[in-house]
Amino acid sequence: MSEETVIRVAVAGAAGRMGREVVRAVHEAEGLSLVAAVDRAEVGRDAGEIAGVGTLSLPIESGLKEALLRSQAEVLVDFTVPASALGNIQTALEAKVSPVVGTTGLTAEDLNRVRAWVAAGGVGALIAPNFAIGAVLMMLFAEQAAKYLPDVEIIELHHENKLDSPSGTALMTAQKIAAARAGSPRPEPANAVEKIPGGRGANYEGIHLHSVRLPGFVAHQEVIFGGLGQTLTIRHDSTDRRSFMPGVLLAVRRVRALPGLVVGLENLL
Known about the structure:
By secondary structure, the chain is α/β, with parallel strands linked by helices. The protein has helices spanning 17-28, 47-51, 64-71, 82-94, 108-121, 133-145, 168-180, 245-254, and strands at 7-12, 32-38, 75-78, 98-101, 125-127, 151-158, 202-204, 207-213, 219-227, 230-238, 261-263.
């Protein structure tokens, strides 16, 4: 592949668990070049050694703006935390770098701010709550089922260090279901009692969402529909963070051509 067609990629959160997988995936992918790795941890250490792919002669830096300008990156992949992601997106767009963001916890107000920055920056951006192809299909299947079975609850299960709840995937699933439902869910009993507040989980337009945070999980979700004499369960399990990498690489290759901000990997499939 010619030098001109290689996409220059920076990674924010490169020392984290997802960031290390992104470093590995970008390094091994054809047509991509890892040109910068940024994190607040492990500064100065080689990004390749942390990711387990050997020495890349690419030390982790702490300053995102400086790293993007120095490396002339075209795409920034961000898997950090909600408190950092919004600023990272703004920094990238100001530098005319397209962000691919897997950090969840961004609000609707945050997304509106990003849309304004994207319009001003003139480059594409993608934010997705989940980059696993199977998870995207799970959401699409749930959206179809909601047309016929309006009564539904969502259980999402993640590792103990996930900061936001419900997960971005669960919230997006609920939004898709609510928009697709042809009928209304059954009303809850007027005399229902929560013995402990939150016992029925979060409630999004009549859809209860339950979050589990335990060691041993990576990312998992069940969408359970109930009907007369039947239930339908649609479940997706990511048992390894490598499951997200094909979707990340797809986004990296496509993001520069997007017409503004795109939310959700399904828009690229």
